[in-house]
Amino acid sequence: MAGSLFFWLSKLGWMFIRPDFLLVAFAVMGMLFLFSGAEKKAKWMLGCVVLSMLVITVFPLGTILLAPLEHRFSTNPVLPEKVDGVIILGGAENNFLTHLWHQPEINDAADRYIGFARLVRAYPDAVHLFTGGSASPMHQEWKDANTARQVFMDMGLDISGMIFEDQSRNTYENGLFSKNMVHPEPGQTWVLVTTAAHVPRSVGVFNRLGWSVIPYPVDHYTRPDRKFGLGLNFSRNLGRLVTAATEWTGLAAYYITGKTDTLFPSAVSGR
User: Fold this and answer.
1) Mapping DSSP to helix (H, G, I), strand (E, B) and coil, where does residue 127 land?
2) b/e sequence 171-180, b meaning 16+ C-beta within 10 Å
3) What's the N-to-C CA distance of the chain in angstroms?
4) Which terminal residue of the chain has fewer beta carbons within 10 Å of its beta carbon, N or C?
5) Which tens digit of pLDDT belongs to each residue from 121-132?
């Protein structure tokens, strides 16, 4: 019950605070003020919208906010000779288009599949686990795991021995439901594959659940040297700003609700 309440509240809350929605909302409010004759309020509000759009267009705010997330953990970590399990988090799937086109459709987080396939081939005797149900409030029948099965088969991977967790709706449930399925033991080595910006929240969840994992970040937005350049790209910058806001808001929400032990998790819980 508590998990469902958090799921619905997080979906509804995020719908109204995401940066792209706020831009549209303030633009609409400005127009309403204009039509109602409140010209001063309209000019102030529409001016804020235009200024915000100009700032987003020129300055890579999203990239700047993503950098500390992506650099929190090492990319291409040195892995031990023996790995007990490899986990990939769902989220790279477009289940709606997969349903419509009857073929697997994935989004710009497809690097997760590449990284997972690399580790599956490097550690064929490890447990290979995909975790992801549906994050859609209205279509729980469209599962990340179903799309993933098709993608793995198309990649030439043997899925007969893979484990697919298909009930989770968010990152916390990814960790919780997966742990209940595979029952990891103390001292085992598990590798977690997910988008670099999503690694801190994911590791925080697994730390909270008492499941030690080695993060394997993929799908980066920023440069290794953290350099940023100015430009004129509103759509890209806005998209990255939404992504960054998603992760930072998620970190705060997970910490407040006890799903992570720290606001900005690191490899060791409590650090």
Assistant:
1) strand
2) bbbbbbbbbe
3) 31
4) N
5) 999 999 999 999
Reading the block at residue 144, the tokens are: 């990340």
Alpha-helical (H) ranges within the chain are 2-17, 19-35, 39-58, 61-70, 95-101, 111-122, 144-154, 171-182, 199-208, 234-256
Contact 213, 192 (CB under 8 A): yes
pLDDT in the model for residue 270: 39
Domain coordinates in residue numbering, the chain? 2-68+226-248, 74-222
> Dihedral (C-alpha) 68, 118, 153, 194: value to the nearest 10 degrees?
-10
Second-level CATH architecture of 74-222: 3-Layer(aba) Sandwich (3.40)
Order the strands of the 214-218 sheet from edge to edge: 163-165, 127-131, 85-89, 190-195, 214-218
Residue owning tokens 């937005």: 221
Residues 94, 107: contact at Cβ < 8 Å? yes
For residue 39, give both structure tokens.
């010209």
Residue with tokens 């288009």: 97
Three-state DSSP class for residue 148: helix
The amino acid present at 75, given as its one-letter code, is T
Condensed to tens digits (0 to 9), the pLDDT of residues 81-104 reads 999 999 999 999 999 999 999 999
Largest CA distance in the chain: 71
User: Which residue's structure tokens are 């309440």?
Assistant: 5
